[in-house]
Write a sequence for this structure.
């Protein structure tokens, strides 16, 4: 019974780590997309700075959770 509970907890932890890893990948894709929009002059520099700051904050949270 203890093993089953332990395995269940480990499985939950692995799912959580995977979710945070997926979130980091998604943030990297978004960052690249924003840079592409800025390079094509579709997004101005102020908007880019704002979006990149949001991504940086989200990434810091995701990295902290991913490592724990």
């Amino acid at each position: 019974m203890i093993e089953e509970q332990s395995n269940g907890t480990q499985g939950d932890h692995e799912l959580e780590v995977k979710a945070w890893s997926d979130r980091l990948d998604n943030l990297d894709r978004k960052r690249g997309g924003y840079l592409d929009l800025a390079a094509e002059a579709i997004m101005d520099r102020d908007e880019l700075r704002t979006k990149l700051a949001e991504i940086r904050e989200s990434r810091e949270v995701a990295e902290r959770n991913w490592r724990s």
